[in-house]
């Protein structure tokens, strides 16, 4: 989403449709630092645990780490300690997507050193460790990047990582993913979301053919984007070059709402460990069940799909309720934007009014869906 703050909660229950949900007293699993969170991998069109059990992620996006650092305010927007994580976990959330800023991670000169480089990386690593130890998978998303872009749908004119860009920049995104992969490789309770919301077709007048070519290859295939672009194959190669075999998510075109060319442009992955990332809001083009069935279901049939962001901008649950019902029917993972306080959803789909988890009307609807999933069946 073109970044704003909101909430959500996600749950996983049992065997089969609703996958893996540990007891608070479950023993640690996987390598050191992974805690009780499942070590996930791709098997066919599903995510599975190390033991082969289906894993369905239902969680939230924890906004803040993409903008606080570059704006000079800190690293997290709101608390990041155990109490705040426990509040999420107690609502059935089993996955948290953490948006990252490449300039802060890489320690670029225009970011306040107090919130960049080693300090930023250490804070993110500590937060991921806390999430994993609390039984939640962490999804790390490259959210804001460098690159001067003033074309169609530009979010800002700055070359700095202070807004959303149409594609990742080769100069900083490649070292970013190489570094992130080295930091979290070997911990498969961490998923890598290569780039938040690509929209390269907008730079070329809506040309989807050229957009998908840019998406995959980057470089000279990116019409209308003035900075050197890293395509998804390049970023995937950067991750795999480190030996990290974590699950990798890739969002499609049109701010990750369009997956129509995903299967035909799927990057080559030696580890065969890829998932499609889909973003779905009431204001997107593909925002009706007929579109979901026509465009998204065929992708779900072939590879795991993770709806990395879902939500609506009216502070209600009129859109997300039928959407989550449809995703549940497909055993498909989803995360709601975002676990961030916004009492009246003024800046976007706000799910909570406080970090204890008190919900907005939108958040209450989402939480009700999660509680229904985790309820024991009637006998």
Mind telling me which CATH architecture this is?
Alpha-Beta Barrel
Unreliable spans:
2-34
CATH topology title: TIM Barrel
Strand order of the largest sheet: 4-5-6-7-8-9-10-11
Instruction: Tell me the β content.
Output: 5-15%
Count of strand segments: 11
Features:
single chain; three-stranded antiparallel beta sheet; 11 strands; eight-stranded parallel barrel; 10 helices; TIM Barrel; 379 residues; alpha/beta; 27% helix
Quickly describe the structure:
It is built from ten helices and eleven strands. With 379 residues, the chain is of the alpha/beta class. It has one domain (16-374): Alpha-Beta Barrel (TIM Barrel).
